[in-house]
Amino acid sequence: MELEIKDLHVSIEGKKILNGISLKIKEGELHALMGPNGSGKSTLAYVLMGHPKYKIDSGEIIFHGENIINLTPDKRAKLGLFLGFQYPTEVPGVTFKNFLWTAYKTLNNGASYVDFNEILDEKLELLEIDKSFVLRYLNEGFSGGEKKRSEILQLAVLNPKIAVLDETDSGLDVDSLKIVANGIKKLNENGMGILLITHYQRILNYILPDFVHVMTDGKIVKSGGHDLAKEIEEKGYEGIKDG
Amino acid sequence: MRGLKMDKMKQQQKPKLVIERDYSKYGFSVDVDYLYKARKGLSHEIVEEISKIKDEPKWMLEFRLKALEHFIQRPLPTWGPDLSRIPFDDLVYYLKPIDKQATSWEDLPEAIRQTFEKLGIPEAERKFLGGVGAMFDSETVYHKIREDLAKQGVIFCDTDTALKEYPELFRKYFGTVVPYNDNKFAALNSAVWSGGSFLYIPEGVHVNIPLQAYFRINAPQMGQFERTLIIAEPDSKVHYIESCTAGVYTTKSLHAAVVEIIALPGAHVRYTTLQNWADNVYNLVTKRAHAYENAIVEWLDANIGSQVTMKYPSVYLLGQGARAEILSVAFAGKGQHQDTGGKAIHLAPNTSSTITAKSVSKDGGKTNYRGLIKVLPGAINSRSFTKCDAIILDEQSVSDTIPYMEINENQVSIGHEATVGKVSDEQLFYLMSRGLTEQQALTMIVNGFFEAFTKELPMEYAVEFNRLIQLEMAGAVG
Questions:
Q1: What value of ipTM does the predicted structure carry?
Q2: Which among A43, A89, A138 is the top mutation candidate for probing chain B, defined by the most B β-carbons within 10 Å of its own β-carbon?
Q3: pTM value?
């Protein structure tokens, strides 16, 4: 199973944002996508999941051997794709647990509530989240750190084939960052393919990516191994671009 | 909402009791050999006939006739939804299904018993209710209260029986909260009323298990006019729940009920309505409570279904420190108009009221919040807060907020907040990215929107409410 992005051009309201992105993510691989603010990283994340406000001008997103660009987000999720949001939306009055159970049973035909509860408990423990958390309304009044942990908890329970994680490290204190990074690492080791979008190199101190890509102005300008992340830290994005 | 917490504690202690019902079958009807069926239309003769069949005292017949006169003279309201298509002349105003009310479901005719079985009432009674009244067209066919409650002096019977068996108590309060000439439909109800619940809670008695009435319209083109009277003596406490459904027909029906609550000093009355009328029903109901010193009255009012609903549960805060909590929710689908809200009239110092209204409109449905806050001179330190939220699901649907305020006292605190909005694309995208279909996502957002209401219901009813919303969202009702 792999996710392949082929020469993707995307615009919003006539303004071009992505200018020919190509990327291939296989199961079990960890890719870090880095780049300065406004380079189009979050747009790529939204487009991969199928947000309706973006227009795909050309290119393909191949998943499961088919071009998914015309599929709605729910169909993409059913194929095994996941997006960890940078800014998860609040859904008042809907408990986290009710929401996640609905998603879980929709993605897993014939899922049992007992199994779901077991998995949920196990992942709560892994991510060091208190049990009472799941009875809160979805993202409502969550702190920045809670939102990010909630995203990773969803990721762990729903267990997709490929996950795109948009700035999952931002807004986390050091302890939370370690826990979240450790969670991602475990899922990756168990075969999940991950595209980790990040502005900073910080999280990469805890998880070693197989590949690092640098994105500026809607293009991937450089790809390499995890050493590239170090280089960015030393030279900055401008330095990479020039080099 | 401090006052709305009363049932939370015991619910948590209760074991899980979920009844599986087939909600798609609310619209059914059964064949019944009615013992008496009034001819179509309304006249003095029919009113006299009803009173005679019921073997009523003279004062009640006079009350009915006076009300009929008022109904005839009074024009239809000129504000609010269109009522011009109510077929007053084609309605049947009284339909008597059986001769003798039963206290055992087995004693009912098969078709009627099956109706309530299908609606899950006997099972609910066995599992978690302290008493049940079941009304079928014009008459209460079943009524029963748990023995331990009866022993404490709680009276829970149908309103006709109360007139016979408790004449003094009845006459003391009947028509005192909603006079016969209050509005056109209260007048109609007063003229042809039949059935409904009479509930009396003695001083200091706390009824800690809900009492339920179920109102069922079975016949086509009929008018159902039940009348409910609740008297809560000082420091008593009760939770009364009513549910309503009807068979689906292409012809129109009318439901015009009157509910009167008297909450004496320190009493606490919660009145929950879960109505799910078929969409051929005009639902025009007057609900009002008198709250005396330090009494609490709570209206929890859910309006699903019907063609037109006009309902504004109100509380007259007559005594110092009295409190009103009104929580009104509405869902309007295709061709439906829900004109709902609440009223609080502050007549004494240190009284408080909260009105929370939530509505969803879909497929061209229309919801209105209509409310009144009135503070009379001398009602110092009154506090009132109204919050209305509406969601409009598509371009064809409409929602309006019409809050009236008449504040005649300076030393008060009055607040009002209103929002009207659409479901955000970001919420939909978020939920859909987790695998929920658009339909599932919308339903989840709407159920979440109503959560402030749902969380106040006993679990059974919360489950039922959420499923009804789910059906409405799928467009599967009616």
A1: 0.96
A2: A89
A3: 0.89
